[in-house]
Write a structure and sequence with these properties.
141 residues; alpha+beta; six-stranded mixed β-sheet; 6 strands
């Protein structure tokens, strides 16, 4: 957590299921369907205003944009069990250039990033330093 209380996160999504462009079109979405205990616990920690890296998984494997948590955790309406939760997210901006997983892995500053160490996790915390480094990488040519 930063001094201002804002946390940073990364969420992964198959673009064929729900892409960054879908979030931009919708203006806001409920982040539902998470059925991994660690990812659920991460969702539970999200607060409105937290910054989120939006990662396209599948073939793309790239961070493509920045979103923001719009609503804190609430029971996931797609789950039969109320222990599963959702948050609402809204788009902030697309990155100037997508940052691939290969580029992230090649950056020594990001070697401890959960995306590199635990690549299957769909919702994960990111340090402010790592968040800023990925955004910086998106501006490089």
């Amino acid at each position: 957590m930063t001094a201002k209380g804002k946390n940073h996160w990364l969420v992964k999504q198959e673009p064929e299921d729900y892409s960054w462009n879908d979030l931009v079109r919708d203006g806001k979405t409920a982040w539902t369907g998470v059925r991994n205990f660690q990812a659920r616990n991460n969702l539970r920690e999200m607060k409105p205003g937290d910054a989120v890296l939006f990662y396209h998984s599948g073939k793309e494997k790239s961070v493509v944009a920045i979103a923001e948590v719009a609503r804190a955790a609430y029971p996931d309406p797609t789950a039969d069990d109320e222990s599963w939760i959702a948050v609402d997210m809204k788009p902030v901006k697309a990155l100037p250039r997508a940052v691939s997983l290969a580029d992230i892995r090649a950056n020594a500053k990001l070697r401890d990033l959960l995306l590199v160490r635990q690549s299957r996790l769909s919702v994960m915390p990111v340090s402010k330093e790592d968040f800023d480094e990925i955004v910086k990488m998106s501006r490089a040519k």
